[in-house]
Design goal:
about 190 residues; mainly alpha; Ferritin; 5 helices; Ferritin-like_SF
């Protein structure tokens, strides 16, 4: 059985890789005909940034908890011991809005996080995009599995609920991306 901290570290690596991939794709989707897809990918990238930072925070909290236990516990913990005191505050960097206008980043993030786009139109000749989306769907499935396993291993109730919510979010991602692949693979 894998240790919780190993699952957290693996999830963090997967999220880091996904964020890099999403950023790369966003750079390629700079034409107006990609606006719908760009909005969806941006939403996925924002969620991924949150997930990555949350996993980093869990890793730090775990290490702090282990140090506390090692320093103050009567007995030394075994390898499977985990006590996570909570999730530290996450800080998002400031950004600029579209067309150089200064829009509070919180408003931009709030707008993207309101709802998932349900209708995304891919331009003609999007075969390469379909392949990229297939790869993303596989990655989202892997993330969902990781968070499922992590939710079973989490000892702290706050961490367990946080991970369950991240897993639900990954299920949304997987469903959306798979839906796009199915819709545009038939055309």
């Amino acid at each position: 059985m894998r240790r919780m901290i190993d699952l957290v570290r693996e999830a963090k690596k997967v999220e880091e890789r996904a964020e890099r991939d999403y950023r790369k794709l966003l750079k390629e989707l700079d034409k107006p005909e990609y606006a719908d897809l760009r909005g969806l990918v941006l939403r996925l990238a924002i969620d991924t940034a949150f997930h990555k930072r949350l996993m980093g925070a869990l890793e730090k909290a775990y290490n702090d908890a282990i140090k506390l236990v090692e320093e103050y516990a009567v007995e030394k913990p075994n390898e499977d011991f985990a006590l996570i005191p909570g999730v530290p505050t996450m800080v998002m960097p400031l950004g600029f809005g579209p067309i150089g206008a200064r829009i509070p980043p919180e408003e931009i993030i709030e707008e993207y996080l309101k709802d998932f786009p349900t209708e995304v139109v891919l331009p003609d000749g999007g075969e390469r995009l379909i392949e990229v989306l297939k790869r993303y769907a596989e990655e989202e499935g892997r993330m969902k599995e990781l968070y499922e396993e992590l939710s079973k291993r989490a000892f702290h109730p706050v961490v367990r609920e946080l991970v369950r919510e991240i897993k639900r979010n990954e299920e949304q991602h997987e469903s959306l991306v798979k839906g796009l692949v199915e819709k545009y693979s038939k055309d």
